[in-house]
Protein 1
Amino acid sequence: ETSYIITREADKTMLQFIGYLEGRLPIDHVQNLFYRNSDGEIFRTAESELVDIDGIPFPLRERYRPAESVPIASSRGCTSNCSFCSSLNFITGKVQPTFRRRDPVKVVDELEECCSIGARIFTFYDEHFRFDGTDARQWTETYIREISSRRLRIVFYIEMQVKVVLNNKDLIKG
């Protein structure tokens, strides 16, 4: 039987939940939580705003050597509204697109930090990695410029729609 379910983004919620488990915070102060009380009743706490993803610290990777491919996220959410996708509802609690992209300089800062401990291969786990459209293209150009200016010798994997690749061949070099 499940007693707790964290919904939406858990970056802040998990810290609040740990505070509750350690007795420092009442359960109704833990946002984005469904919980069952001792009588079996189910309650839902208040929802938090979406997280500023540029404000999230990098993972503490210096404690271990990175695996063959280091996971990276440069954005959260998606600009589409596909009928088969559950991520929109999971992230926002609503069926509507909510897309946020990290500053490309900060993404490359994270890549560079990983390179300093030996990482060279990265897999982007963005739900919607795009470089089409004016804003996305500017983001990608800054990202490429930052990697080049820092002389990072890396390989990265991304998933995206084929039409985006075909419409932006000038951004892709072998």
Note: The chain has a mean pLDDT of 84.
Protein 2
Amino acid sequence: SSDVCSSDLPDLAIERLGTLRDKLEIRERKVKLYQDGQALFKLPVIEFPDIALTRKEVTMCDGVFGVFTDVSNSIDGWKELQWSQVLPIMEDMMTAMDGFAGRSKRMPKRVRDWPAALQVKTMVDNFLVVLPMMQELSKESIRPRHWEAVLKLAGQTVPENTEEWQIGRASCRE
């Protein structure tokens, strides 16, 4: 299962993890049936340590890719918001990102070096840098020249109506 967790393509790894989880559950049921049959006939019960190890690794992968999915879905959803919708939920966004940062830090040390875990940390850190800027840009004192400077850095043109502008447009160059 370590090849699933070390994938550079988290979406593909999440799909493979689901398949692996299904196969593991089938094997765990078979092991239980075998062990119950062995106990019924008073035979020595055979242990399968590889199954327990695989379950532990799948659980770790679930943790990493669960955080990855949550962070990706949240950020993607926020990028679709119009500027006028951002200010009322700014505090919720900050709370969510702090929660994701905490979940990322609480990952087992062994998994923190996996590409998906590093990508989660990068996404969270980058968005935590952007949030204070968004708070500042939402103030009444912001003038068109401030918007022009920010959008120039983002490689975007100045929108005619900033209230209808989606925040995802400033996050990357198109």
Note: The chain has six helices and no strands.
Protein 3
Amino acid sequence: VSNILRKLMKKKKRCPSIITRVRHKWLYFAPILILIAVFAFLHTHKWRNDILVYSVTPINAEQTSTTLMSYNPNTHESATIVTVEGKYLRFRISRGGRLAYSFTVDTYAEIHVRDSLSPNALSINITETLTPFHAEVMGWSPDGHYLVFYTRNEDRTARIYVWDGTEIIDITPT
């Protein structure tokens, strides 16, 4: 009987503890979580002439303002470009340095355009006459003169527009 017990003791494998099992599961999901974090970062920042532009979105529900910031890696300086009282800040930068950004506030959305990344630049609300429920900047033309964006109303009808610097042109296919 003692020989049988000794053989069983030698063959007995240690059962990993709960902590070890949880740690192994965390390591299994870690690469996926890292990819999601990298994608989220790449989606919310852009480089323009050695300056990183990124948005800082509120984490908790009480905070309603979102900030668009710039960082210069050469001088290690950060600056606030604009702070908006809203969430879901999306932005695009033209090759010429013009900034277009959209954000949502409760029941409406706005798209603003600025001629530079400077905090003192004048901001123009180009969707003031549209009053959409949701709006998002899609992109600038290669020469930086035209901005394409879309809006969606409360009834979920979507429209695509081009802004030429003075007027908005509806280009939604019929």
Note: The chain is about 20% helix and 40% strand.
Protein 4
Amino acid sequence: GSAVRVIGNQVIGNTGGYQQFGDGQGIGIQASGSIASGNIVADNILGIELSSNGTASDNLVYGNSSRGLSVSTATARGNRVYDNSIGIITNSSSSILNNLVYDNTVSGIDVTGSSVTVENNTVTQPIGNAVRLTGASVSNVTLRNNILVADAGYVVNVASTSQVGFTSDYNLLN
């Protein structure tokens, strides 16, 4: 296909001077329908933001003050995400697969939309939630075959408005 490929870069320290479509959000990598792979993305406001069938794979994402990895109608696979406020956040029709997520301050994985699969991840949170589903539009979320640990928070936190179609199986919870 014709997807843009962002591969093997270091994007570090972007805390507000960057202007993508005039938003000035301090985003490390932002793309639609693209591939972001093998990058080191650190110390930005937002690490990687992908949408429209994009794929983030095998990236090292850490130290971002807001979110490490944000996907919307996209896939996050095989990333190492740590020391952010929120490790990985997704709002709809996305797959979060085979990621190592740890030491984020609010949550490891946040789901805020529908039709999301969270599978084969390892999430360890000394504070905050390992996985959090929150929002009125959250439905049809599958949580399968993950290792989830939260020392001072919820291992799986599902808001009462987020329970429609929620399935969880073969997870190791601690």
Note: DSSP finds no helices and 23 strands in the chain.
